[in-house]
Amino acid sequence: xxxxxxxxxxxxxxxxxxxxxxxxxxxxxxxxxxxxxxxxxxxxxxxxxxxxxxxxxxxxxxxxxxxxxxxxxxxxxxxxxxxxxxxxxxxxxxxxxxxxxxxxxxxxxxxxxxxxxxxxxxxxxxxxxxxxxxxxxxxxxxxxxxxxxxxxxxxxxxxxxxxxxxxxxxxxxxxxxxxxxxxxxxxxxxxxxxxxxxxxxxxxxxxxxxxxxxxx
Length: 216
Fold this sequence. Notes:
zinc, 6% strand, Bact_metal-bind_prot9, ion transport, 8 helices, ZnuA-like, elongated, mainly alpha, metal ion binding
């Protein structure tokens, strides 16, 4: 039986050409790699696997099987609960796909590159990330690079996160016409605990992308 980690449809943690605004000349490439070395904490596998509900379905099955082995008398209950949860996630995926149907062309960047699972599952790729990881704020050189590329790519929105300083985003993009009001959170720290936390977390991400797309 696979572990929950093995059941994850894991993505390699890597700098994506579009997502991290990689420069194309050697001087900028060298500088970009310096930023990456000092600020990026996602080595190996991208750790944000919960942002793909298909991973959550796999984990439900793995958890149910582990519990069934530990408590055989209630194995049927664990498996039924997991199956019900998987069905609810199927419905959630369908709902989110519907809500994002008109948002596939949204041009947004995120504060840090945590959303590849969600982007890949729902075909809403970010155009870039300000910070390359969770560990530190972006350097001044990184900020200048992002400002230049935001103008080139006609970015509509920059998504803020509650864990990071909102003044940084607002000051960087002041006067550009880019919407910095949308807040998303891969952790859902402000959401109430309970059975609805996970679907609310994913709906929050989808709502942010849909709001951005409405600017077109």
